[in-house]
Design brief:
297 residues, alpha+beta, Oxidized Rhodanese, domain 1, Lipocalin, 2 domains, nine-stranded antiparallel beta sheet, five-stranded parallel beta sheet, 14 strands
């Protein structure tokens, strides 16, 4: 039998009539805990073992309805196709997905831990948090990390309200130069007045001033713009960082990447903006920064 669709009203009628039915929520365990139709079975279609679990937990002869988040995404279609390949006889996709069901005012189950926003102040788990850098010139590049000294993030009504991160600029590391002496030469170079002047300015900070929601963001793309003040080498500049922020009952995760113009903070070494005819001594003005911050709830 080909895969068909079913409306929220028709599904509700089947449930109310106690018809034999299997409801499949094919998204992650976290998504299922956040919201699902009562009596649904959580089988994540993104798992390699989806078909194996479906055969073990479901009856291929019983009518099966799969639903995703809404009609814009394809998880329900993917799950239905995989079930059809496993010889399930009657497979339907819920029109509008979970959002369509909710719009009709029908019942859903929610976990309080997921339904509530992570309001309050949280501190970074420094063992799980990282900030990495890449510096480049025309023919080469180096990469490494800068140690995070401390970081905090405050939420109000489910949105970031305040935050601050402090970096230990006297703990810059390079990962790509294996020779220990050459590695230290680069670290010394980055630490002196050519770049970050760490003896006089041992820390660098970012202070969140405000946030801007990205309304069209999809999962895996930045959902907030964080606007704030970066202080490097004792100079302060306003910067905007696009970040992905999400949470579960145990933690809050903030990740992102951006390019920092070092010359705005007084690092002129090798910059074609200030020096002519640099040749092989030219160094890109932009330093690429990426970060993964984990805050314990």
């Amino acid at each position: 039998m080909p895969i068909s669709t079913i409306s929220p009203a028709a599904l509700k009628a089947l449930i109310d009539s106690n018809s034999s039915l299997q409801l499949i929520h094919p998204l992650t365990e976290e998504s299922f805990a956040q919201s699902h139709i009562p009596n649904s079975i959580n089988l994540c279609v993104y798992e390699i073992a989806f078909e194996e679990k479906a055969k073990a937990q479901l009856d291929p002869e019983t009518p099966t309805v799969a639903y995703g988040q809404n009609n814009s995404f394809e998880a329900a279609s993917l799950a239905s196709e995989k079930l059809a390949e496993c010889d399930f006889k009657d497979i339907r996709i819920l029109e509008g997905g979970l959002e369509g069901w909710i719009q009709k005012g029908y019942e859903v189950k929610q976990s309080a831990a997921f339904a509530s926003s992570p309001d309050g102040r949280f501190f970074a788990d420094l063992e799980k948090s990282r900030l990495s850098w890449i510096g480049r010139n025309l023919f080469n590049q180096h990469n490494g990390e800068i140690a995070i000294q401390e970081a905090s993030l405050s939420f109000a009504e489910g949105h970031p309200a305040a935050g601050r991160i402090t970096l230990n600029m006297q703990d810059i590391r390079c990962h790509d130069i294996e020779d220990s002496k050459l590695n230290q030469v680069l670290i010394n170079h980055l630490s002196n007045s050519d770049f970050f002047l760490t003896d006089s300015h041992p820390t660098a900070t970012f202070e969140l001033e405000r946030f801007e929601v990205k309304p069209k963001a999809t999962d895996g793309t930045p959902n907030f713009d964080l606007v704030g003040f970066a202080n490097v080498r004792g100079r302060e500049q306003t910067i905007t960082i696009s970040a992905i922020i999400g949470w579960n009952p145990q933690s809050i995760s903030v990740q992102g990447q951006f390019d920092l113009d070092r010359t705005q903070f007084g690092s002129k070494y090798g910059s074609g903006r200030f020096y002519e005819s640099l040749g092989m001594h030219l160094v890109n003005d932009l330093i690429s920064i990426s970060f993964q911050l984990t805050f314990a709830r």
